[in-house]
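Chapter summary example.
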Amino acid sequence: MKMKTSFFTIVLLSLFLSLYPSLSQRCNKKDEKILLRIKKSFGNPDVLTTWTKEIDCCSWYSVQCDEYTDRISALTIFSGNISGRITEAIGNLPYLETLILRKLTNLTGQIPSSIAKLTKLKTLTISYTNISGPIPSFLSQIKSLATLDLSYNGFTGTIPPELSLLPKLRTLRLDRNRLTGTIPESFGNFTGRLPAIYLSHNLLNGSVPQSLAQVNFTALDLSRNRLMGDLSVFFGMNKTIKAANFSRNLFEFNFSNLNQFPESLSVLDLNHNRIYGSLPVTLTGLKLQTWNVSFNRLCGQIPTGGSLQKYDSSAYFHNQCLCGSPLPAC
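The structure predicted for these 330 residues follows.
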C-alpha cells in the first residue's frame, strides 16, 4: 500500500511539473532558441560563454527574465569581443522591455526592421558601436519607447520626423553621429512630455524650428553642429529647462532681448557662436553650475550678482567689448 502511494505521488509530481515546467526550469524554450541565434550572429563570443543549454537562460550573463512570466524582459550587453550584425531574430523576443548594446565597436550593419515588433520595449540603447546607415523611421512604431539612445555610432542621413510620434518618449540621444539636414519641424509635437534631447556632434544645419517653442524641454544639447537662428524659443518663465548647450554653432541673435529665464536653468553654454548685444541682468537670478559665452560678439558690462562672477575670464573670452568682473573694468 505504501509503495502504491509513493508511486502515485511521483506520477502526480511528474505530471504537475510537465504542466508547469517553469517550476523546474524558468527559461522559456522559444526565448532560449532566439538568444542562441543572437549569440551565433555575434560570433559566439567569450563574453556569452554562459549562454548554453546546460544553464537556465534566465541565469545567463546579460539576460533578465520577468519575475512573473519568466519571459526575457531585458538584454543588456556591455563591452566584449562581439562582432557581427544584429540579427532579425531579435524581434522575436516579444516580452523584451530593455535592449542595451553598448561599447561593442565591432558590431556593424544596420538596425534590423524586426525591432519594430518589440511592442513592449521601453528602453532601446545602441551606443558606441559601428552600426551605420540611416536612423530608421520604423522605430516610431514602438509606441512604448521612453528612452531611445543611438549615440556614438556611424548613423548618416537625416533625423526621421516620425520619431515625434513616440507618445512616451522622454529621452532621445542621437549625438555623436554623422547626421545631416535640419531638426524636424515635427519635434514641436513633443508637447507635454518634458523630453531631454541630445543632438550634439553631428552635421545638422538650418534654423531651429519655431515649433520647438511649444515644447518644455528638461535638457537640450545642440552643440557642435551648423545650426542657426534665434534661441529665445527655449526660454521664458513658463519653461522648466535645466541644461542647455548651444555651443559651437552659427547662432546669431541679440542677447539683450532674451531677458526671461526659467529658475530651473543651471547649465547654459553658448560659446563659439555669433551672439551679439549685452548680457541681460536677469541672468543674475540664476544658480548657474555651468556658464560660457566666450567667442561671441557680446558687448557692455557683465551684470553683477548671482553666479556670473564666480566664473573666470575664460567664460567670457573673445567677445567684442565685454567688460567688468572677472574681465577688466569698463
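To summarize the output: The first strand starts at residue 63 and ends at 65.
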